[in-house]
Amino acid sequence: MNPLIQLKNLEKSFPTRPSPTWVLRQISLDLEEGEFVTIMGPSGAGKSTLLSILGLYDSAWEGEFFLEGQPVHSLKPKERAVLNRRYVGFVFQRFHLLEDLTVAENLDAPLSYRDLKKSERDGIVADTLDRFGIVGKKDLFPAQLSGGQQQLVAVARAVISKPKLLLADEPTGNLHSEQGAAIMDLFVRLNREGTTIIQVTHSEVNAARGNRIVRLRDGWMERS
To answer: In the 3-class helix/strand/coil scheme, how is the chain assigned residue by residue?
Structure first.
C-alpha cells in the first residue's frame, strides 16, 4: 500500500547570482495516512516552503512528489488544483479569513467549489458550526471575533470539506497559551477521527501532541 505522501529528492531553489539560493535540498520522506507529523527547525530552514509544496500551492520545485500514488510532479496546474481541492485543508498562522464574509459564508466558501446543492451546503455549514461550538458567531464578521475565535473558524473552514490531509503553518503562533492549547486539542481529536495532519511549529509542547517530528536545517532534513 502506497504512503499518502511520498517525496523523492525534492529540491527548491531561487535563481540568484553567482549561484542559486537553495531552500530545500534532497528531501526524501514518506508520510502514512493517519499520521500527525510536525515539521520543526530554525527560521529559514525551509519549513513553510515544504508545507506550501505539500499543499500543492507551490509548483516551482524539482524531484518527485506522489500524493495518494498520483505523480504531482507530472501533473498540469489544473490537475494539481483539483487534487488540492479534493485532498487538502490548510490552516494559516494569520487566519486568512475573508473579511467581507460572515463566519457562515467563510465556511461555505470551500463548499462552493463542489457539486453540491445550496441546501446540502447549508446543512454542512450548520453541522460544522455546531461541531465547533460557533453557532452563535455565524453572522459575525472576522473583525468582530477574537484571535482564538478566528483561528477556530479557520480550522473549521479547512476541514469542512473533510480533507484527507490537514496542513497547519504555525497555527497557534498568534494565540495566547490557552487558545493555542484548545486548537491543539482540536487537532488531536481530528487526527483520532482519521485526518492526517502536518503542522509547522516552533513549540516543542505542540510538537509532542503529534506522533513524529521531521527536523529541517538549512533546507536539509536532519537524520534521526
So the answer is: CCCCEEEEEEEEEECCCCCCEEEEEEEEEEECCCCEEEEECCCCCCHHHHHHHHCCCCCCCEEEEEECCEEHHHCCHHHHHHHHHHHEEEECCCCCCCCCCCHHHHHHHHHCCCCCCHHHHHHHHHHHHHHCCCHHHCCCCHHHCCHHHHHHHHHHHHHCCCCCEEEEECCCCCCCHHHHHHHHHHHHHHHHCCCEEEEECCCHHHHCCCCEEEEEECCEECCC
